[in-house]
Design goal:
Blueprint: E1 2-5, E2 11-14, H1 19-47, H2 53-78, H3 84-89, E3 91-95, H4 103-119, H5 123-131, H6 138-143, E4 145-149, H7 181-193, H8 199-217, H9 227-247, E5 297-298, E6 301-302
Antiparallel strand pairs: 1-2, 3-4, 5-6
Helix pairs in contact: 1-2, 2-4, 7-8, 7-9, 8-9
């Protein structure tokens, strides 16, 4: 992983492309460019057969420069860093700050690529890519760019394990406003990779992160709670708060409240929606149920006692309480 800082001071985690995938992408690009060059050359030779040898030589040199040098520059500029070979290999050229490249970046990469790829058969580019920590060639260094992987295998995606069920909703009263984003990122990275760590090393890291998190929240880690389980429970609590802030405590369709304010118990528990009486279909009363008792309380609401008169003269709520 390579951490890049954008212009908005946001840290991005990108996977730099290594030499094998980059070499395959360059090879595919060269094959496509050579195919276009051969086809265009045959067409120009047939069209310029009446010209002298000097004119044909000048046209051949201009065609070589336009197809093998200008073509990749134009393609990378229009596709924002994705040539044919890079699209096939799942790669993309980005700036050092993670943004899309522009014409000047593609121009520098293309001009230096003529020397380190075409003239030296890729030897200089391979050496520079092996020496660089991010796998960059000289064109990337001078242009301020980086080739990254766009497609990440599903098995390598970060999955935060859930906390034990007995910790659900236990940290609903913590003040998480003082926890910085860097600490959240460190906790999340630890939880996604703790299965790959040595048990002793992972335990010490969990204790250190739990101590930092407890110092930021102002509440110590409860005794008897493993540090990894504490981190997972606090992260789940933060995600639950973010979901409540994003989607609200309810909706017009009747969604019940979620969290401690709900009548159903602990934070994060689902509360069945309470529908208004007018939303239920009228006159749907099973014959096996007896009529509702006057003053009965249903779902926290008092049902009005039946009034005198026929059922056709009064609106029906359609609700029939069980016996």
């Amino acid at each position: 992983m390579s951490e890049l800082v954008t212009g908005e001071a946001v840290a991005l985690e990108l996977r730099p492309a290594r030499l094998p995938s980059r070499a395959l992408a360059v090879l595919l690009d060269l094959v496509a460019a050579m195919a276009v060059y051969v086809v265009v050359t045959i067409a120009l030779v047939a069209a310029t057969a009446s010209l002298d040898e000097a004119a044909q030589t000048a046209i051949s040199i201009a065609l070589f420069v336009l197809v093998l040098v200008g073509g990749p520059i134009l393609v990378e500029t229009l596709s924002h860093g994705r040539s044919l070979g890079k699209m096939a290999c799942g790669l993309r050229v980005v700036r050092d700050d993670g943004g899309p490249i522009r014409f000047r970046h593609a121009l520098v990469r293309g001009l230096i690529g003529v020397i380190e790829i075409l003239m030296t058969l890729g030897v200089v580019a391979c050496i520079a890519s092996l020496v660089s920590a991010r796998g960059r060639r000289l064109g990337d260094v001078f242009a301020g760019t980086l080739v990254v992987r766009e497609r990440v295998p599903v098995g390598q995606t970060g999955f935060v394990p859930p906390p034990p069920p007995w910790l659900a909703g236990r940290f609903s009263g913590l003040d998480l406003s003082a926890v910085p984003d860097g600490l959240w990122l460190a906790v999340r990275q630890y939880l996604t990779r703790m299965g790959q760590l040595d048990p002793q090393v992972g335990w010490s890291m969990a204790e250190r992160l739990a101590a930092d998190l407890a110092g930021r929240t102002g509440a110590p880690v409860p005794p008897g709670v493993p540090p990894a389980a504490y981190l997972a429970a606090v992260v789940q609590e933060r995600q639950a708060r973010e979901a409540r802030r994003a989607f609200g405590h309810g909706s017009a369709g009747g969604g019940g409240p979620v969290g401690p304010a709900g009548p159903a118990g602990p934070a994060g528990a689902y509360v069945p929606p309470v529908y208004p009486a007018a939303a239920v279909a009228p006159d749907v009363r099973p014959a096996a149920y007896p009529p509702a008792d006057p003053g009965a309380v249903v779902r926290g609401e008092r049902v009005a006692p039946p009034q005198e008169g026929s059922s056709a003269d009064r609106p029906s709520t359609g609700f029939a309480p069980p016996a």
